[in-house]
Design a protein that fits this description.
The protein is α/β, with parallel strands linked by helices and 573 residues long. It folds into 3 domains: 83 residues, Arginyl tRNA synthetase N-terminal domain (Gyrase A, domain 2), CATH 3.30.1360.70; 258 residues, Rossmann fold (3-Layer(aba) Sandwich), CATH 3.40.50; 183 residues, Isoleucyl-tRNA Synthetase, Domain 1. The chain contains 21 helices and 13 strands. α6 links the parallel β4 and β5. α7 crosses α10, α15 packs across α16 and α18 runs antiparallel to α21. The longest helix has 25 residues. The protein is globular. It starts with a helix and ends in an 8-residue tail after the last helix. The model has no long low-confidence stretch (mean pLDDT 92).
């Protein structure tokens, strides 16, 4: 919002706080009749040693008449409320809209900076359930946000393909595995024996030692165990690839935990040379008392590696390969302590970019009475959720468009159904838990991707009709913005103006819901405008042109926001 920038500069010129202070204080009021921007003066009271209402009155006197686009300024208690000239405001925002092409709110500040985003990271030999969708869809949206602002983004899928659980899986397979079932449906069969292992463990605790032994042999690359592990990994990657292709997600790196196993000795030697390793009950740990954290386990008593040692090795590898600006982990909130420990060990080891390693936590997807668990066998597969969503949309489309070709019905249903699932995981704050409910997940009314896609399609339809009627295209700069001074039009203008800020805030907080909130409000504002104004059949040609420019801008901004979220923007629905 350049008006906000200009206003902050003008306020700083007549008062002691710097421009940055005013920028941080200026806010959009909760109600339109309270102005377009408001300055709460309470935080200035201490510095200026005056009551907030007096500060507001003095600032009004000093700035009044200095900015031509300010229609009026009002003092309300300790607030200074600013009202823009609606026509000038519309002209400024729309000029900026069309000058930015199809990527409004994009930027170039990330040029030359490489950002690594690690997300999805499923465990091999386990089903891809709806819990995995959280990290996958959130991580993809965060990667898209960084890319939108010009960063060189590397998408990393740090596969869970190593650790004691694979020794347990090998043991389970040898006891109860079926070659025939593995060939038919590998993930289902591997999950079946894995669940059985934990159920049998209750009465046969010796299985735990058997699993540890097989993992030790796997670490030593014993031929039989290594060959089984490689088979399980290859079959899992084929199954995962189907999910990723359906969601149009591609990774730059699919290196799993196993890739770093031979790099751990160098990490251990480095920590030892810095006198950071201590022995604790036969294990090797790094003391983190100064960080108020428990010791970080590096090597188990039997010499086996653990998550932390592999993650530390991965950071050193990533720095050497990519010289990253930021190294972001989109991993569930329960792993908060793990990453605190890893980052603390990096600091202790003098790693210069320890503070540029960031854990982006998110909540869990759970049933009302408990969490998903592959050990207990209670999961809802992401494939099943996508299928159900697409099927429901297909029925709606066929009912509304009985003459539509089957191929087009299927194409639209796939885009809308998958988009609905994506939006479900992105629309709320990422640290909020999602209570799984089929009804809630597949509710397409109200705050949903189908609503946004339908609004985009509505805008596209209007512009097609305008083009067919010879009205569009024309130079958007030639319109009379006095025709966009009404409340409905100004509501849209404000949201267009706020889009770039929402992108920047979403990126800074790693919170795509901030950007989605903007385009959701934009869709609602446009539909209110559409229902109260005639666009193509307005009483005056100049009014038609002004409203078409507003419609096209809305279409562009909705398309940009949907693309960042990874949701298809559809010209027809």
């Amino acid at each position: 919002m350049h008006y906000k920038d200009e206003l902050a500069e003008a306020l700083a010129a007549v008062s002691s706080p710097e421009k940055a202070v005013f920028l941080s204080l200026l806010e959009i009021p909760p109600q339109a009749d309270m102005g377009d921007l408001a300055l709460p003066c309470f935080r200035l009271a201490k510095e200026l040693k005056k009551a907030p209402n007096l500060i507001a009155a003095e600032l009004k006197e000093k700035i009044d008449g200095k900015l031509p686009w300010l229609q009026r300024i009002e003092v309300v208690g300790g607030y200074l409320n600013f009202y823009f000239d609606p026509a000038q405001y519309a002209e400024s925002v729309l000029q900026n809209s069309f000058s930015s092409g199809s990527a409004p709110g994009s930027g170039s500040e990330g040029q030359g900076k490489t950002v690594l985003v690690e997300y999805s990271s499923p465990n091999i030999a386990k089903p891809f359930h709806v819990g995995h969708a959280f990290t996958t869809l959130l991580g993809e949206a965060i990667a898209n946000l960084y890319e939108y602002r010009g960063y060189d983004v590397k998408r990393l899928n740090h596969l869970g393909d190593y650790g004691t659980q694979f020794g347990k899986l090998i043991a389970a397979w040898r006891h109860w595995g079926s070659e025939e079932a593995l060939a038919k449906d590998p993930i289902t069969e591997l999950n079946r024996v894995y669940v059985k292992f934990y159920r049998e463990l209750v009465e046969h605790p010796e299985l735990e030692d058997e699993g540890r032994l097989y993992f030790k042999r796997l670490e030593e690359k014993a031929p039989e165990e290594y060959e089984l592990w490689q088979l399980f990994r290859d079959l899992s990657l084929k199954a995962f690839d189907k999910i990723y292709r359906r969601m149009n997600i591609e990774f730059d790196s699919m290196l799993g935990e196993s890739f770093y196993s031979d790099k751990i000795p160098a990490v251990v030697e480095k920590l030892r040379s810095l006198c950071l390793l201590e022995e604790s009950e036969g294990a090797q740990v790094v003391n983190l008392d100064s960080y108020n954290l428990n010791p970080c386990l590096i090597l188990k008593s039997d010499g086996a590696t653990i998550y932390a040692s592999r993650d530390i090795a991965a950071v050193y590898y990533r720095q050497e390969k990519w010289d990253f600006y930021r190294n972001i982990y989109v991993v569930g909130a329960p792993q908060k302590n793990h990453f605190q420990q890893v980052f603390a060990v990096l600091k202790e080891a003098g790693f210069p970019k320890a503070d540029q390693c960031i854990h982006v936590a998110f909540g869990t997807v759970r049933f009302a009475d408990g969490i998903f668990s592959t050990r207990q066998g209670n999961v809802v597969l992401l494939h099943d959720l996508l299928e159900e969503s697409v099927a429901k949309i297909r029925v709606i489309i066929k009912n509304n468009n009985p003459d539509m070709a089957e191929e087009e019905v299927n194409s639209i249903a796939e885009s809308v159904g998958v988009g609905a699932v994506r939006y479900t995981f992105l629309r709320n704050g990422r640290e909020r838990d999602i209570i799984f409910s089929w009804d809630d997940m597949l509710d397409f009314e109200g705050d949903s991707a189908p609503y946004l896609q339908y609004t985009y399609a509505r805008c596209s339809s209007i512009m097609r009709l305008a083009k067919a009627g010879g009205i569009w295209p024309f130079d958007p700069n030639e319109i009379n913005t006095e025709h966009l001074s009404g409340d409905e039009e100004q509501a849209i203008i404000k949201l267009l103006d706020g889009f770039e800020s929402s992108v920047l805030e979403a990126l800074e907080a790693h919170e795509p819901s901030i950007m989605l909130r903007n385009i959701s409000q934009l869709a609602r504002a446009f539909n209110r405008f559409y229902n109260s104004r005639s666009i193509l059949h307005a009483e005056d040609k100049e009014i038609v042109k002004a409203r078409l420019v507003l419609t096209e801008s809305t279409r562009i901004y909705l398309g940009a926001g949907l693309a960042i979220a990874g949701i298809d923007a559809l010209d027809r629905m």
